[in-house]
Amino acid sequence: MSYAMMEKQLAALLDTTDVTTNAAQMSAFLFQELKDVNWVGFYIQREPRILRLGPFQGKPACNPIPFDQGVCGKAARTLTTQRVADVHDFPGHIACDAASRSELVIPITLESGLWGVLDIDSPEPDRFSEEDAAGIEALCRVFIQQTAFIS
Ligand code: SME
Fold first, then answer.
1. Residue nearest to ligand 1 atom 3, measured at CA
2. For the segment 68-111, what is each residue's pLDDT rounded down to a tens digit?
3. Which InterPro entries match (predicted)?
4. Which structural domain range is residue 82 located in?
5. Amino acid 56: pLDDT
6. Is the CB of 93 within 6 Å of ligand 1?
7. Is residue 96 in contact with ligand 1, taking CB distance under 6 Å?
8. 17-40 burial string, b = 16+ CB within 10 Å, else e?
9. Domain for residue 150, yes or no?
C-alpha cells in the first residue's frame, strides 16, 4: 500500500483522541502493513531524558532507554529521524532482538517538546529508504493531529 493510502487509512483508524488507544492502533497498523519488520512501537518520555516502553507489536523489548543510549536515545536527544542501514555499525545500538538488522526511529515532537519516539526494526539490512522515512514521518503527523496528549 502506498504511503498516501496509508495516511488515509490511519486517519480513519485513529477515531479516538486517546493517546494509548491511538498509539496501540498505530503500532498494529504499521506492523501489519509494512513488509519485513519485526518490531514497531513507541517509547514515551514520561520523565526527563528517559524513554519508557509504550504500546508496541513484536517481541518484549528493552526498557527504559536513557537519552544517551541507542538509536532511540539519539533520535530523542537530537530530535531528528534516525535511519540506520546496519545496526551493527551504529555504536551504542541496543539489541533487544538479535534478529534486527536495520532501524528507523522518528521523534514525535509537540509544541511542549519531545513526547516520545516511534521505533521500527527490520531483520533486513537497509530496509528503510528515504521515501520510507518521509512516508512514516507523515504518518506520525497524522498521529499527532488526531491525538490528545496528556502529560
Ligand atoms: N534498538 C533500539 C532499542 C529499542 S528496540 O529496537 C525495540 C535502540 O538502539 O535504541
1. 94
2. 999 999 999 999 999 999 999 999 999 989 999 999 999 999 99
3. FRMsr_CS, GAF, GAF-like_dom_sf, Phosphatase_reg/MetRdx
4. 3-145
5. 98
6. yes
7. yes
8. eebeebbbbbbbbbbebbeebbbb
9. no
